[in-house]
Structure to design on (160 residues):
């Protein structure tokens, strides 16, 4: 287990996460998501022509994108290909933060594409939990930035 952790620490930090994940933003999804949080501002729950995504909507596309990217990720360790996640039940969402500086609003019909790279990767030896930062960029169909999330994942022993 410690050997796997050391391998991941040495081989992930700063590297691109292979692939991308795209989704089309639906008007109904934007409005329903805002309503879940009790948002009543017409800017977020109004007409389809005027509505934009509330910032909480970032939870919807960020987590979905990351799980999709990570589940298919393969690595070569000791000359053999292996899955990044060895046991999905050991993967935990540890934190997230969002940066909207220089970003445009999300509107119904937008096609969002998320790509990412690995940030810091470290092991807490007391409980052998591996932590990894995932630095994500989400752009729309016009290649305009809509959000820059940073998500931390925790993987319990047996998952890496």
């Amino acid at each position: 287990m410690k050997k796997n952790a050391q391998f991941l620490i040495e081989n992930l930090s700063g590297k691109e996460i292979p692939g991308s994940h795209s989704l089309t933003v639906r008007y109904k999804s934007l409005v329903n998501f805002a309503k879940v949080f009790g948002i009543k501002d017409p800017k977020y729950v109004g007409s389809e022509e005027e509505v934009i995504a509330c910032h909480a909507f970032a939870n919807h596309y960020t987590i979905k994108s990351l799980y999709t990217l990570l589940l298919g990720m393969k690595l070569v360790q000791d000359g053999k290909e292996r899955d990044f996640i060895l046991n999905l039940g050991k993967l935990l969402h540890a934190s997230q933060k969002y940066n909207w500086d220089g970003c445009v609003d999300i509107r119904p019909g937008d096609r969002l594409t998320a790509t990412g790279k690995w940030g810091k990767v470290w092991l807490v030896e007391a409980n052998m939990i591996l932590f990894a930062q995932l630095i994500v960029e989400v752009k729309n169909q016009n290649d305009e930035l809509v959000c820059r999330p940073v998500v931390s994942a925790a993987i319990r022993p047996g998952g890496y």
